[in-house]
Each structure stands twice: as structure tokens, then as C-alpha cells.
Amino acid sequence: MATSARAVWTGSIRFGLVDVPVKLYTAVRSQDIHFHLLHDQDGVRVAQEMVCPIHKRPILREHVLKGFQIDENHYVIMDDEQMEKCAPESSKTIEITEFVDLADVDPIYFEKAYWIGPDKGGDKSYRLTVETLNRTKKVGIGRLVMRRKEYLACLRASGDDTLCLQTMHFHDEVISQNELDWEVKQLKRKLDEREVKMAQSLIAALEGKFRPEKYHDEFRACVMKMIERKAKGEEIEIHKPKKRETTKGSNLLKVLEASVQAAKKRAAASSN
Q: Can you tell me whether residue 253 is helix, strand or coil?
């Protein structure tokens, strides 16, 4: 963990009668490229205002209400005092209510990751929690209140020394497969066993260990390089990428065979 990282939350993890004093640190730093909106006439930044579409004039913030739309022209107005009644009770505890196998948690539920470090007096109980989670191969499921919002959370060991907490989507936030505009039963047709075995061979040929440092955001790198060149006054030439054809069912076996051969050649070349 970088020494410059600051804790975004302090409290404790609780399971049973055990309390582990901890601090939470943001685990992922966004590297998105952000652009400002400029006026094309004079190059200054554009100011954004809230405007009433009926009166065609700006509205002061104190005249803005929160409304929940229940039909086309009907809103239920809620004020801050009413919202306060439903706000989760402030808590400094991550209450772990059960332990489950990580394989039983579909990654689609994971949202944002945080590193967890021990707070004062928590070193021994922290190390004990990491060791126990590693030995049992379990993760803890519980709840966390942070910045006046309640989160479902998953506590897991990351390596031999560190705890990681991931906030999770609630079940009703995840779109069910039954809501998709295609039916799963369409995919129940019998497959050609030759194609299945060839696909397995392709996976075997491309098998490796996950090393995240190998992967980079090529789009971001390209945009930043283009910005640097434009800042120096260079002309930018645009080349459209070639469109790849979609694999058809009729030529699937041939495509798989060619893919396996290409993967083997790349593997042989990289080993030399």
C-alpha cells in the first residue's frame, strides 16, 4: 500500500464477538481521461446552469426540489428531513453475518474494491482474520455504512498478508437472465463434438497465468499520445481500422483449427 494513501473510513470488522480495528483505503485509482467543455468561439470553459424549460431562465439552487416521478407528469416531492428518516444509522462496524465459498459469489455482484489495513491495537486480530480466511477458503458477507449509504460487502483475504473488502450490488440491482431479449433455450441445441474439442485445444494453447501488468488501456495511451502530438503542433492522420468478419456457424471448425495453429506458432516464437 502506498504510504501517501489516506484512509477513507475507520472502524472495525465484527464477526461473532471478535472486533478487528481497521482502516479502509481505496484500492482502485481511475485513469480515465477527462475533457473540459469549451466554447468554440473563444476557447473558454462553458458554464453549466440549471434552467427552467418553461420560463427559459436560470434557477437558483434553493428553488430546486427533489421529485420522484411516478407517471408522466406526476412527481412525489421529498425534502431532506423526510429522507433523513430512512437514512441508515451511522455505524463504525462492518458486521459480517455469514461466511461463504468465494466460488458461490458471481463476480457480477462485485462493485468497488477497498484495501483494509489494521488500525491501532488490531494487528494480532487482523493477522488472525487473514490466516483464517486463507485456511478455510471462505469470504465474509456483511454490511457497511459509509458516507450515509449502506452497502452489501464481501470481505476476503488478498494474498497471505492483506484483507480486501468489495462493496456489492444488491440482488434486485442485478438484471436477471430472464429479462434478456433472447431465450437461453435457444442455445440448448446439440454441439458438434469436434468443435468442442477444438475449442478446448484453443483454450489450452492460450492458457497462462494472470499477470495484470501485461494489460494496458490502449485507447487511453493512444489518446494521450495524440494529445501530446497536437500540443506540439503536429498534424494527426486518421486511419480507419479494418472490419473483422463475424465467425459463421458453417466455418466455425476451420476458424478454430486456424486459431489453434496460430496460437501454437506464437507460443513457439515467444519461447525462442
A: helix
Q: What integer pLDDT is reported at residue 144 of this predicted model?
A: 92
Quick: pLDDT tens for 239-264: 777 776 656 556 788 888 888 888 88
Domain region containing 66: 51-78
* C-alpha cell of residue 113: 474494491
Is there a single domain that holds both residue 255 and residue 197?
yes
Q: What is the pLDDT of residue 187?
A: 67
Domain of 115: which CATH number? 2.40.290.10
Contacts of 141 (CB under 8 A, 6+ apart): 96, 97, 98, 99, 100, 105, 152, 153, 154, 155
> 3-class DSSP state for residue 122?
coil
Residue 174 CA to residue 258 CA, distance in Å, equals 38
Q: How far from the centroid of its chain's Cα atoms is residue 37's Cα?
A: 27
Between residues 269 and 66, which one has the greater pLDDT? 66
212/259 same-domain check: yes
**194 CB-near residues (< 8 Å, 6+ apart):** 253
pTM for the predicted model, two decimal places: 0.78
- CA gap 146, 166 in Å, rounded: 13
Spatial CB neighbours of 247, under 8 Å, sequence gap ≥ 6: 255
Q: Cα separation of 77 and 65, whole Å? A: 7
Inter-CA distances, 254 with 16, 190, 191, 257, Å: 58, 19, 15, 5
177-196: per-residue pLDDT in tens?
888 877 766 666 788 899 89
Residue 42 belongs to a domain:
no
pLDDT for the residue 107: 95
Q: How many domains does the chain have?
A: 3
